[in-house]
Design a protein that fits this description.
Length: about 60
């Protein structure tokens, strides 16, 4: 299935890694993360939002554009 993926209705006709391997990887991580003690991250938290801000070469934040 992963070795030679075929497009289907759920993948909107695509047969790329993003549509075939990514969902399987997500399910694996969801099952193994609790065993390893990895907790989910709240992407809306201020710490994560600050870490995700990308600055341009001029030193201005992208949100200023």
């Amino acid at each position: 299935m992963v070795d030679e993926p075929h497009p289907n209705k759920q993948s909107h006709g695509y047969a790329t890694a993003g549509w075939t391997v990514a969902p399987a990887t997500s399910r694996i991580v969801q099952r193994i993360a609790p065993v390893l003690g990895v907790q989910p991250v709240d992407e809306a938290s201020p710490e994560v939002q600050r870490a995700l801000i990308v600055e341009s070469l001029q030193g201005k934040r992208l949100e200023a554009y």
